[in-house]
Amino acid sequence: MTGSEDFARFLDFVPGCFVFLGNGKESAPLHNPTYDFNDDGLVYGAKFHASIVRRRLRPATA
Predict the structure, then answer these.
(1) In angstroms, rounded to a whole number, what is the distance separating the alpha carbons of residues 55 and 53?
(2) CB neighbours of 24 closer than 8 A, spacing ≥ 6?
(3) Gap between the Cα atoms of 45 and 51, Å rounded
(4) N or C: which end of the chain has fewer CB within 10 A?
């Protein structure tokens, strides 16, 4: 996806990825004056990041 996001510059120096985490189908788009962040979605983001940490910290098997 093309866009005006500076995060790509960080990826030149450290490994990472850009994630689009939805806010529900009923949500107004980002940068819309009626946009209202759905706090209930925070749990999905937290679970996503926790699963990455668990995978990265998993001990190597013999």
Answers:
(1) 5
(2) 38, 41
(3) 10
(4) C
Name residue 53's amino acid. Answer: V
| CA 18 remoteness from chain centre | 6
Sequence length of the chain is: 62
> Would you say the pTM of this structure is higher than 0.70?
no
Contact 60, 37 (CB under 8 A): no
**Residue 58's pLDDT band (cuts 50, 70, 90):** confident
Nearest alpha carbon to residue 22 among 38, 3, 6: 38
Whole-Å CA distances, 34 to 3, 11, 16, 26: 22, 32, 31, 12
Task: Tell me if 21 sits within 8 A of 41, measured CB to CB.
Answer: yes
Contact 21, 10 (CB under 8 A): no
